[in-house]
Amino acid sequence: MPHATIIGAGIAGTATAIGLTHAGWHVTLHERATHPETSGAALGIWPTALAALDELGVGEALRAAATPQAAGSIRRPDGAVLATLSAERVTRRPGDPVHLIARRDLAEMLAAALPVSAVRYGSKVDPSGAGLDSLAGLDNEAGEARADVVVVADGVFSTYRTALLGERYRARYTGQSGLRGRVAVTTHEVTETWGPGRRFGVTPYLDGTTNWYASLDAPPGQRAAGGEVAMLRELFAGWHDPIGQVLDAITEDDVMRHDMYDVHPHLPSYVVTGGARNAVLVGDAAHGMTPDLGRGACEALVDAVTLARCLAPGRVAEGLARYDRLRRRPTQRLQTLARNAGRIAHARRLAGARDLLLRAAR
Ligand SMILES: Cc1cc2nc3c(=O)[nH]c(=O)nc-3n(C[C@H](O)[C@H](O)[C@H](O)COP(=O)(O)OP(=O)(O)OC[C@H]3O[C@@H](n4cnc5c(N)ncnc54)[C@H](O)[C@@H]3O)c2cc1C
After folding, report:
1. What are the boundaries of each domain within the chain?
2. What is the share, in percent, of the chain residues with pLDDT greater than 70?
3. Structural domain 3-68+98-171+262-345, CATH architecture
4. How far is ligand 1, taken at its centre, from the CA of residue 11, in Å?
5. How many helices (H) and strands (E) does the chain have?
6. Ligand 1 atom closest to 156 (CA)
């Protein structure tokens, strides 16, 4: 039986492990954490990603646990609508709406679909000084076959990407820091509100709760000396309803803060092959993108099913080349779009002209 070693059991690595297992591969998944992810806010799952989850056998569980996303708008801080997003338009072609699911619920569903023996939690693997040969030999110590393929799924700060492709391809700070959480406030509409150098988003969620997110221009690593909640209330004071209500309900313990990175420059290939060595990058390790389009996890799921379809045992190099052809261009286009969307949302100069154009385009 062909054997794949996968590095990282995030969404990309776990989904790939399920896909390859279904395709007849023996899989070993190394994850440095000791258990599946238990934190994180909600993720928007777009129809293409839901189709990928259907292929992995997890789609129905997700539909049952998720909330279909309501209609939405982009607004100015005074509440004026700049653009609208109709839920029907997103749904019309694929037949599924965008579904919101708690990240930990998705992580649990994926972990439950894996063979228990496939995953080794608490297994941090280290590429330092290792060539591809020793990557492929990773599971030899465990008495397992040498890997026919190494799947690199160790996230946006991937050390294996560096080992394979060099220091040039890095996680680049976007200049924006993101904060998010969930509050017990009922809202009815998805809104994202743009102000100079900052934005605030509100998404109705389950059981009368609301997910919120904010982003602001900030140096990397900066944290509010007087607490994030006080800083948020000051930055977004006077913004339209229901932002004030949401801000009143936020407590310091509920705020998650992440600086936002993407992978830059675009990778020349998602595949490194040569001799008996085969490695492939999936998810954020390949195409880490800013969350502005809400597509990083979705694309990781599509990577997983595409790779599983491409990798016929015995014809690994051909299958990897096909995966690269199918996935590199579309995901790199999204990386660029996402970064530009973030810049437009935070625009300081020409924000007035941007708003006029958006309103005219409605
Ligand atoms: C604020 C925010 C909001 C987002 N919202 C959305 C959204 O609505 N919809 C969407 O589709 N996407 C969204 N995303 C993007 C999404 O979170 C990522 O694209 C996705 O989590 C990437 O999954 P991954 O498995 O590639 O990487 P990760 O989730 O980073 O997983 C990598 C895994 O590898 C492990 N690992 C790393 N190094 C090693 C090692 N040496 N040995 C063993 N294990 C290792 C890590 O512990 C980790 O578990 C958002 C991102 C952010 C920051």
Report:
1. 3-68+98-171+262-345
2. 92
3. 3-Layer(bba) Sandwich (3.50)
4. 7
5. 13, 16
6. 30
Q: Model confidence over 189-226: pLDDT tens digits?
A: 999 999 999 999 999 988 899 999 999 999 999 999 99
CA of 284 to the centre of ligand 1 (A): 6
As a whole number, mean pLDDT of residues 348-358 equals 81
Per the structure block, which two tokens stand in for 154? 């160790």
Beta strands in 1-144 (DSSP E): 3-7, 26-31, 42-45, 67-68, 72-75, 81-85, 99-102, 119-121
Res. 131 pLDDT band, cuts 50 70 90:
low
Kindly give the distance from the C-alpha atom of residue 239 to the centroid of ligand 1, in angstroms, as a whole number.
31
Separation of alpha carbons 96 and 68, rounded Å: 9
| Ligand 1 pocket list (CB less than 6 A) | 7-13, 30-33, 43-44, 124-125, 153-155, 159, 178, 180, 258, 283-285, 291, 294-298, 300
Q: Which residues, at least 6 apart from 127, have a Cβ–Cβ distance to it below 8 Å?
A: 135, 159, 160, 162, 163
User: What atom in ligand 1 is closest to the CA of residue 213?
Assistant: 1
Question: How far is it, in rounded angstroms, from Cα 41 to Cα 248?
Answer: 19
